């Protein structure tokens, strides 16, 4: 690696982007070098730059923008913007590519770079490998800038186009007639930029918290039940019909009921899929760590549910290959090709609100009607003893511990048996091994996780 990070603050560089601790592993120089490598792989044309609400965003964005301008690239600066908004702007403005500064659900001290192709989607794996190779081959220090006519920086607000695209996917008048009250936590990230005008356009009364995109997170930013425990009681006090929670770059959505019960992220995709399939049946794509709820819904509707490797780019690849009407990941990321081939919390909101309106339902009723499964996720630190051949051997031991299961090596090791499944895979972005299990009840899930952990050693 051309720019090694310290042991204490590792820089995670992969085909899907870069992430690190600002001022430690992630500096202006690291960011500029990575973007320089990215640009060498792109055709001519402008570059879109955006960021979530983190306080480290403006200086990093300024350094990146200045370098792009020196390289002769025009920069379309979206300022604070949701990740899916960046994809829309790249595509609609016919840019050569784009970069979003965000560390997604990671704590405030982190930031990162997420790259977009000219199609307005996150880079496919092959393109990501090309960028990674270019980055690793750069000589030390700040990259040299060739003599070139400087580019120009333009400011652009992608919000109106994003709102229009999302609204076009649903029955706006039906939602307006329902006069729903929505409680929203944008987590002091970029989400409020689109969520507020969208929900107002849909005729919703909005109670918003964390709407200022200043990165001053009031809780750990990943929208899990544990992290949101302090916020859930506020929903019934507000009189809202539903609660929504976004992560800092607004590509994931978690849901809660009117009485403050956490429905979760896994249910987001399932709820959206059921609504879309009722109107336009077609193939669906999920990744291999997504709850079986979505596959069960697809089976009930008689449509194919295709499975991809974990990672947004892999889901998008499979969606394009199969002509999917909807896709996503169980972390609350819904991808609707009518809007953009990027995980989008806003289209997830709209699709769920449309179901409440068209079905005359409450979120409690819709959640209760989902296939009832119990999922648990755990992670094990990827110590030196567990890397390389040792991890391969550990996966083989886990497979042997589940003789009743059907194995798949699509991504790590997935084991399926009647009524349940288990996935063990190394994270692409963190030095951990993730273990996910799902079954009909918590006892079966705990038993599966225990067997896997014991076999891994």
SSE topology sketch:
Blueprint: E1 12-14, E2 17-21, H1 28-40, E3 47-51, H2 57-70, E4 75-80, H3 83-92, E5 97-101, E6 110-116, H4 125-136, E7 153-155, H5 159-167, H6 172-178, E8 181-185, H7 192-201, E9 205-209, H8 225-228, H9 234-238, E10 242-246, E11 253-256, E12 262-264, H10 266-279, E13 284-287, H11 292-301, E14 305-308, H12 312-322, E15 326-329, E16 333-335, H13 345-358, H14 363-368, E17 374-381, H15 389-401, E18 406-408, E19 413-417, E20 420-426, E21 432-439, H16 442-456
Parallel strand pairs: 3-4, 3-5, 4-7, 8-9, 8-10, 13-14, 13-15
Antiparallel strand pairs: 1-2, 2-6, 5-6, 10-11, 11-12, 15-16, 17-21, 18-19, 19-20, 20-21
Question: Can you give keywords for this protein?
Answer:
16 helices, Alpha-D-Glucose-1,6-Bisphosphate, Chain A, domain 3, disordered N terminus, 22% strand, 5-stranded mixed β-sheet, 37% helix, 457 residues, TATA-Binding Protein, alpha/beta, globular
Summarize this entry quickly.
By secondary structure, the chain is an alpha/beta fold. Helix content is 37%, strand content 22%.
Question: How large is the share of residues in beta strands?
Answer: 15-25%
Q: Helix count, per DSSP?
A: 16
Question: Biggest sheet: strands side by side, in what order?
Answer: 1-2-6-5-3-4-7
- At the first level of CATH, the class of the largest domain is Alpha Beta
Query: Which class of secondary structure composition applies to the elements?
Result: alpha/beta
Oligomeric state of the chains? single chain
Name the CATH homologous superfamily of the largest domain: Alpha-D-Glucose-1,6-Bisphosphate, subunit A, domain 3
Proportion of helical residues? 25-40%
């Amino acid at each position: 690696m051309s720019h090694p990070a310290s042991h204490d603050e590792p820089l995670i560089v992969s085909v899907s982007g870069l992430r690190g601790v600002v001022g430690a592993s992630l500096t202006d120089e690291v960011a500029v070098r990575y973007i320089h490598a990215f640009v060498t792989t792109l055709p001519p044309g402008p570059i879109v730059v955006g960021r979530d609400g983190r306080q480290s965003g403006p200086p990093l964005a300024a350094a990146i923008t200045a370098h792009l301008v020196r390289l002769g690239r025009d920069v379309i600066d979206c300022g604070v913007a949701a990740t899916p908004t960046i994809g829309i702007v790249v595509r609609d403005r016919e840019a050569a590519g784009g970069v979003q500064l965000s560390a997604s659900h990671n704590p405030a001290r982190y930031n990162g770079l997420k790259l977009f192709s000219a199609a307005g989607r996150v880079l496919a794996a092959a393109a990501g490998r090309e960028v990674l190779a270019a980055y690793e081959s750069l000589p030390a220090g700040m990259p040299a800038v060739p003599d070139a006519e400087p580019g120009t920086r333009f400011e652009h607000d992608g919000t109106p186009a994003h709102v229009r695209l999302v609204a076009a996917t649903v029955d706006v008048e039906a939602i307006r007639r329902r006069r729903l009250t929505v409680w929203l936590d944008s987590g002091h990230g970029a989400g409020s930029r689109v969520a507020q005008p969208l929900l107002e356009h849909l005729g919703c009364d909005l109670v918003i918290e964390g709407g200022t995109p200043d990165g001053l997170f009031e809780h750990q930013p990943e929208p899990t039940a544990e992290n949101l425990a302090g916020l859930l009681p506020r929903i019934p006090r507000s009189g809202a019909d539903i609660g929504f929670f976004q992560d800092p770059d607004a590509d994931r959505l978690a849901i809660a009921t009117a009485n403050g019960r956490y429905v979760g992220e896994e249910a987001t995709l399932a709820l959206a899929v059921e609504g879309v399939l009722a109107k336009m049946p077609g193939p669906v794509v999920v990744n291999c760590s997504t709850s079986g709820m979505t596959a069960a819904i697809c089976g009930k509707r008689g449509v194919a549910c295709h499975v991809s490797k974990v990672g947004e780019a892999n889901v998008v690849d499979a969606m394009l290959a199969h002509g999917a009407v909807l896709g996503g990941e169980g972390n609350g990321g819904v991808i609707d090709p009518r809007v953009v081939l990027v995980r989008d919390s806003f289209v997830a909101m709209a699709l769920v609100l449309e179901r409440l309106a068209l079905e005359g339902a409450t979120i409690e009723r819709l959640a209760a009607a989902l296939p009832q499964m119990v999922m648990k996720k755990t992670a094990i630190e990827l110590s030196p003893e567990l890397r390389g051949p040792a991890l391969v051997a550990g996966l083989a031991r886990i497979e042997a511990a589940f003789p009743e299961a059907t194995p798949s090596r699509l991504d790590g090791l997935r084991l399926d048996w009647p009524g349940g499944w288990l996935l063990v895979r190394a994270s692409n972005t963190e030095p951990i091994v993730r273990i996910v299990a799902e079954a009909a009840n918590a006892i079966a899930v705990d038993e599966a996780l225990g067997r896997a952990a014991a076999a891994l050693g």
